[in-house]
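Much of our argument rests on the idea that a fold can be written as discrete symbols. Part of our work consisted of pairing the sequence of a single chain with a tokenised description of its backbone. We regard such an encoding as a compact summary of how the chain folds. The amino acid sequence and the backbone structure tokens for this protein are reproduced below.
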Amino acid sequence: MNRPIDILKALRSFRYAGVGIYNLFRYENNARIHFMACILVVIAGIFFQISSIEWALIVIQIALVLAAEAINTSIEKLADLVSPEYHPVIKIVKDTAAAAVLLLAISAVIIGVIIFIPKVLLYF
């Protein structure tokens, strides 16, 4: 028989996730850079009055990049704990995780260009 949902446990999970988000932006320079880019894109979206579909694409891209940055940070921290000294396999793991963030950031830039360049050209 299924047990009822433990609300307190769920709330603790949200709190832990919130601490993770806080730590991500407090300690990780690249996460702060991505966040600043996010703010600029949101301001541009408001200024150019982008459509609901364009907002959906922008929000998805922002979430993907920030989530990838969080996963990359987690992998790097775990790898540093497991192997504090240099190890070629750990280097590959960390570089590959960073590559995932870069690939998503590139796709976000492409989506941004597709959405904003026509609007910028019409504005000028």
Observations:
- The chain is about 85% helix and 0% strand.
- The mean pLDDT is 95.
